[in-house]
Design brief:
globular; 262 residues
Length: 262
């Protein structure tokens, strides 16, 4: 039976990676195409909301949330400290990105710094869980799972926001998202097969995660080149997010029989 003891971390990792992926692709799109200023600001506000929501979820995992700042004291040796610094820097850059839309050179620089900070935070998160004590995690799989969330759910959020603002772009985000989702199916199956001896993985949950978070969105995204509406984009994003939340839940529950941090 699957336990749900690590739900704050499930929401933190998922929402933070959504924000990072959406911001990364927003900066790429703005560098390559002419996005309306109001559209950029709208997207930035929503991305900031997800980033802050993720940090709020992470504090629910702390025994003493007011003392969470002390984690920064371990920057020299702790990937957890580097994760916190990275996501905090990312949030700051998202705010600056909103404020510098009328200063193109500075705006681009802030976008680059924010994207790098976000990706380094995501990398640090994956290294937090690359633990010899948990053989299934002592592998490339934590990084692969978090990369896939970043590059599937993040662009899916951005796709919805751009469609909501009726902002056309040339980069085929639905096609990119579909490719990442297919890769996610392959990685999930590979994880369950290669790490089987170290996992307590209920097959039914894994099948449900693949169905909700990958197969159904892929079918939906395949029709977007014909009719890409805000409702369709939102539904695709919600399905992908539900799948990623379930995937992260399976990731924790399949190997953690006791609290992760003491």
């Amino acid at each position: 039976m699957m336990t749900f003891d690590e739900l704050p971390l499930v929401f933190f990792t998922t929402f933070s990676q959504i924000a990072i992926g959406a911001f990364l692709f927003l900066t790429i799109l703005e560098a390559r195409e002419s996005l309306e200023r109001n559209t950029v600001r709208f997207c930035t506000v929503v991305i900031f909301f997800f980033a802050v929501l993720s940090m709020a979820c992470s504090t629910a995992h702390l025994g003493d949330p007011t003392g969470g700042w002390r984690a920064l004291l371990g920057l020299g040796h702790s990937w957890l400290s580097r994760e916190i610094l990275g996501i905090s820097t990312f949030c700051g850059m998202v705010v600056l990105y909103f404020l510098t839309t009328e200063k193109p050179s500075l705006h681009r620089l802030v976008g680059i710094v924010g994207s790098v900070a976000g990706l380094l935070s995501m990398l640090s998160t994956s290294l937090v869980y690359t633990l010899p004590a948990r053989p299934a995690w002592d592998s490339p799989f934590p990084l692969l799972f978090f990369l896939l969330t970043t590059f599937a759910a993040g662009p899916a959020l951005l796709q919805f926001l751009l469609t909501r603002k009726k902002q056309a772009v040339h980069i085929p985000l639905p096609r990119l998202i579909s490719v990442v989702l297919i890769a996610g199916i392959i990685v999930s199956i590979a994880y369950s097969v290669t790490q089987a001896e170290s996992l307590v993985l209920p097959t039914s949950w894994l099948v449900l995660r693949i169905l909700i978070g990958a197969i159904l969105p892929i079918l939906l995204l395949a029709k977007m080149h014909v009719q890409n509406t805000a409702a369709r984009s939102l539904f695709a994003f919600l399905l992908i997010t539900a799948g990623e939340l379930l995937g992260h839940q399976i990731f924790y529950a399949s190997v953690v029989p006791f609290p992760l941090f003491h």
